[in-house]
Structure formats: structure tokens, C-alpha cells
Amino acid sequence: QQLALPTPKSLWRMFLESTSDDCKALVKELTSKSDRLKKDEESQRSDVLRSMNQRLAGLPALGLVGEGVQQDSPATQLCEDALESATNLQSRYTKLDNILSAHAKSIKSLLESGTEVDDDFVNELLGEVGSLAVPTSDSSTSSSSAAAAEESPFEAVEAIPSILDLDSPSDKKGSKSSAFGPSLLKPNPDALSLSGLLNVLDGVVDTPGRIVIMTTNHPEMLDPALIRPGRVDKKLLLGH
Q1: Measured CA distances, 23 to 13, 103, 222 (Å)
Q2: Residue 165: phi, psi to the nearest 5?
């Protein structure tokens, strides 16, 4: 079984969304040298604007910060979780901007040395990578998850396995999967973000009778928001 991932953005689209001055300068120079890139940049302005806005629009609880929320109320925890998720998100985009900035400098240096912007370069810059797929859990877990999804309209909640292995190799940083094939793209260790996992665990509706079991060999590495009382009510140490 494989889980399909969203189609990755092209390098050109990432340059357009970057806030790096080097990326902005590169976009300006490339659009002056290529009519195709200029037309594409103009056509994507609205999409880029929406994409930038959606980064924080997906965390509506940020709007509660500083709005007279009472201490120790459920809304307080929502604010704390949203702030933590927003901080993590900002950190990831900063790292991505640093990488894109360094790459933009390299390309700009070549352009300044007289390298031409030909069709092959533009095709690769605009090119879309095929959909990625990663292996899911074993067939028994997949079958039970699929059956649960058929029984409930809230598929995003019911399709999550009842036992979460927080040390799964697919979730570890630096893990590799042959499903990605020979590509410059690396499996994203944060494909399932903390915010996304918390939203799935909390759910959009009550799920009476559901018991979620999490396993890990490194509890000290887990985010406090994931194992706070209310999400994890009982902890057991299974020694040798």
C-alpha cells in the first residue's frame, strides 16, 4: 500500500514565494530574459498571494491571542498550541529561504558570467515533479483504517490507526524511502506536522469509545503539546 503525497512545487514557484532578497533579484532578472517566465510570473501572482496567506490562515486559533482569553481555559491551550505551530512553521520556511537564497546566488552568478537562459533551463525551472508516494503501514492496519473510513463521514479522523508508533522509521529525520526514486527531493520528515497530528487527535467530533495508544522508545523527545493531559491521560513504562 502507498500513500500519495501532494505534487511538489516547482523550483520557480518556490522562488516566487520566497521572501529572500536574492530570490527576488533572481526572479526580476529571469523575467527580463525570458518571456515564458515573465508570463508565468504574472499569471501566478494571485496564487502566490493566496499560498502565502494560507500559511497562517490554517491556524485560526492565532486570532484568539490577546483577545481576553481567561488563564487555564481551553482557549488558552489552543492559543499556546497555535503559537508553537506558527513558530515551527516560520522556522521551516526560514530554512527553506536560506537554501533557495544560496541557490539563487549561484544561478545569478552564472547569468552574470554570460550564461544564456535557454528553453531547457526554463523547462526545468517550470517543470512539475510527478506525484510522490510513500509506503503506508501493513495491510491489516490499512484494511482496518479503510473500513473505519467507510463507516464514518469523518474520514480524516477515522482513517488514523489506533496505535501510533512515534518511532516509526518513516517519521525519523534522515530516513529514506525507495518510493521517492532517484530525485533531488528528500522525504520530508515533517510531512505530518505537529499541528496536523494534534488536529487529528483532537478531532472535529467526539469519538466516544476510541482508545489511542502511542508507543515510543524516546519519550523525552516528544513535544509537550502532544503528551499533555487530555491527549495522553496515562503513561506506562514497559521495561525488560
Answers
A1: 11, 9, 35
A2: -90, 100
